[in-house]
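Ticket #4471: structure output looks truncated?

Reporter: J.K.
Steps to reproduce: submitted the chain below (618 residues) through the standard prediction queue, then opened the result file.
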Amino acid sequence: MTWTVRSKILLANGTVLLLLGLVLGWALTNLQNLGSASEAILSENYRSIIAAENMINGLERMDSAVLLHLRNREQGLEQFRTNQNQVSRWLARAQDNITIEGEDRVLARIDSTFNRYTAQFDSLLQRPDVYGDQPYEDALLPAFQAVRKAAGDLRNLNQQTMVEASDRAERVATWAIWSVGSIGVGAIVLGLFISVVLAGRIVRPIRKVQAATQQIAEGNYDVEVQTGATDELGHLADQFNEMAGELRHYRDLNVEKILAEQQKNEAILQSIDDGLLVVDGDYSVTNLNPTAEWALGVRRDETEGRHVLEALRNERLFEQIQATIESGESSVPSEPGDTLTVERNGETRHFQLVVNPVRSTSEEMLAAILLLRDVTKLQELNRLKSEFVATASHELKTPLTSIGMSVRLLRERHGETLEERDRELLDAAAEDVDRLRDLVDDLLDLSKIESGRMEMNRETVPVSLMCDKATEALRAQADEQDISLDVDVPETLPDVTADPNKVTWVLNNLISNALRYSEPGDRICIQAERIGDSVHVSVEDEGAGIPYEYQSKIFDKFVQVDSDQTAGGTGLGLAIAQEIIHAHEGRIWVDSAPGEGSTFTFALPIANRSSARGAAVS
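Returned output as attached by the reporter:
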């Protein structure tokens, strides 16, 4: 007969259930015997004891009634007859409940002595000297004692029988405990033995398959499982061996191809000019190229397999990589100028940091790639461009001043004598000169900020003061355009460390832009709130909003949103504002949706940041 796994499990479970049934049947039998013994104690003897007790009580009351009658009390006779009937009834009940040997003889003795006692009492009533103690002591007292002793013997006989029944029940209970316990322990031991044996026969092939699976997981495909079983586990082992054979065949066919692809990928990775660092989902470094080694100051053999934070010791890079792995989205620099500058061996290079996720076909997060894009040449071009703009602006400032003075003198001296057409040309020239001068001034300011030559007179200043100064300077223009200009700055807002004139200029520029793009009846709101260790100041308008294609470059130089209201702007205001805020170790950004208005926000550090943080914690 071929034993399957199912039949083995059913055999083990059936054996255990059978043993449990035997134990249960034996326990029920013993409980039934114990119940029968207890019932014998209660049903066979208890009624006889009650009858004996009631007879003794009735006899004692009859004796009391005799003494009462002998004292010339007529009520004694009535009491005697009443208790006589009571004793007779209980005697009859006892005679109907004869259950033990010798009980009938005791009852016969009670019956005879009781009859003699009542007969003595009746004869005593016929004597003339009935009253007094002597007749009672001579005739009635011995008869009373005899019948009372017989009733006591009946009670003692049944009590002795109950004690013997109790002992018998105790022996039955003790035997039941030991027998049920012994059979139960034997059933448990036998059941465990059968379960262990069958479990071993079932688990042994599974363990062999498990060990072989572990070897395959470690790359050893030259493994087979020999179980000798003919059940389902044997078939499983045979199928496992077939699978291992297929894997060996697949390995032999594809190992060389995989190695070639790996070497090709490795060569591509090593040949890329930009730095690449690969981090898996557990934040372990899996690969990096020479450019990344140079930029991060690490060696490949010392970083592979280590945690990225331990290997690079750079909180900034770790937070950027962590954000990408947790969100599954690419992490790009928050600011255009946010780069990693590396100076090593007399060489300075700038890298822009971008982290991209690597997903499987099922969108599962596999790894993150840190791209260190070399922007050294772009930085150099920006520096040269800034220097050129600064030089050109400086060279243009003097002739523009001269041209402006000349145009102004011509307007003052000959403006009234010129023809209208000539006067319009002169006015247009004066307007163009003023606009060029503003452009040159903005370019000079921007170049000073970018080169670090613009002085920042920082001091502790209330945010409300700068907001009030900026709005008061433009309130007349807002009223003229029928635009509401509101300020919402809490009085409890902490002071900031800033150059009040420069920050006021930034607010003026943001409010001017909001006025330029707002319609009559709109509302512009200047708000401020504390967030962490910074104060966020925002200028919110209800204008046309900024198209999405402009939002990523709105702070670049000479960028203007296409609109009828852009006339007269230089396209440098937001670029200068960004440089001023960066010089204050802050940042500036915009939130906007076309047709729903715009909100420009910049953050400034709180004055005495460490003490403010301590106060917040306490």
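Triage note (M.O.): checked the attachment and the full token line is present. The CA atoms of residues 334 and 394 lie 32 Å apart.
Status: closed, working as intended.
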